[in-house]
Amino acid sequence: EAAINRIAAGEVVERPASAVKELVENAVDAGATRIEVVVADGGRSLIRVTDDGCGIAEPDLPLALSRHATSKIDGTDLLNIHSFGFRGEALPSLGAVGRLTITSRVPGEGAAMIAVAGGRADPVRPAALNAGTVVELRDLFYATPARLKFLRTDRAEAQAVTDVVKRLAMAEPFVAFSLRDETSGQSREVFRVSSETGDLFGALHGRLRAVLGREFSENAVPVDAIREGVHLTGYAALPTYSRGAAVSQYLFVNGRPVRDKLLIGALRGAYHDFLSRDRHPAAALFVDLDPHLVDVNVHPAKSEVRFRDPGLVRGLIVSGLRHALAEAGH
Ligand code: ADP
Ligand code: MG
């Protein structure tokens, strides 16, 4: 059983960045207003995510580590997925492929911690923590050496972690994020954004500036369109601010970062008349729709989605973006 769990875990946790994604999404789900991520050696030796969210009550700590245990759906409606996490697989997977400790405290109770390594959990112990949750993952894939061989250089893995944190930060402008690299005991700040205030568009614009830079934010037009209950919001850059690489494409479905071919193709289609083949449009776009109209469960890494009506979503993106660009005189 332990071996099967480790294989299944490898599907969920492909690399350090996927572990960071799961842990940060959990912190967001817990209502955190501040999320700190620390990594060392590209995340191989250490990933630590600290949040100020609701915490996990002591009796629930062992539960959080058991497969398919989730506090986020009741099992009666698997399709009705409103929060990010829904499978209850992330923590058990991380506990199967690395040395995981969770320290947590809910308001008004004492802090407690649990440790699990290679799928085997120790009993819960009392701990010291003011509030929220600290999840620490050390020695990722130590129990599955074959997986280690698939990792790229520490530098490349660290870059993937940075990219994931930036994408998640883009989706949550009201949450403060920081990312530090503590390789070789030296602490280096990689990324930091403070929480934005105001209405969603204002906050999003502020977060865009913080993550993608002033030039992007000053060349971006707001997008706000709706068709048959599918809502498209965000910012799209003017064609003059296109890039030679698709690094500035931030796409979200129901708040979840995705790298979906249909959405990328639709984005490209919207700019078709303005951009030559080698230029990529920059945009941060949020597609929000009834969870029943999209399958986010295509792959455990969850970056692809399947829309019930792909033509509708594609049409909305093309027309919504063209409209926004036309308003700006293009
Ligand atoms: P899922 O997120 O799909 O429910 P996970 O394995 O990621 O599954 O987490 C299991 C459970 O542990 C969650 O449902 C939640 O109740 C709890 N949990 C995990 N991380 C946190 C956190 N940072 N703060 C509060 N609760 C958490
Ligand atoms: Mg989760």
Automatic annotation (TrEMBL):
Molecular function (Gene Ontology), one example: ATP binding
First and last residues shown, out of full length: 20 to 349 of 620
Organism lineage string: Bacteria, Pseudomonadati, Pseudomonadota, Alphaproteobacteria, Rhodobacterales
GO CC, alphabetical: mismatch repair complex
DNA damage as UniProt keyword: yes
Domain (DNA mismatch repair protein S5): residue spans on this chain: 208-326
Function, as annotated: This protein is involved in the repair of mismatches in DNA. It is required for dam-dependent methyl-directed DNA mismatch repair. May act as a 'molecular matchmaker', a protein that promotes the formation of a stable complex between two or more DNA-binding proteins in an ATP-dependent manner without itself being part of a final effector complex.
Record-given protein name: DNA mismatch repair protein MutL
One GO term (biological process): mismatch repair
Family: Belongs to the DNA mismatch repair MutL/HexB family.
Keywords: DNA damage, DNA repair
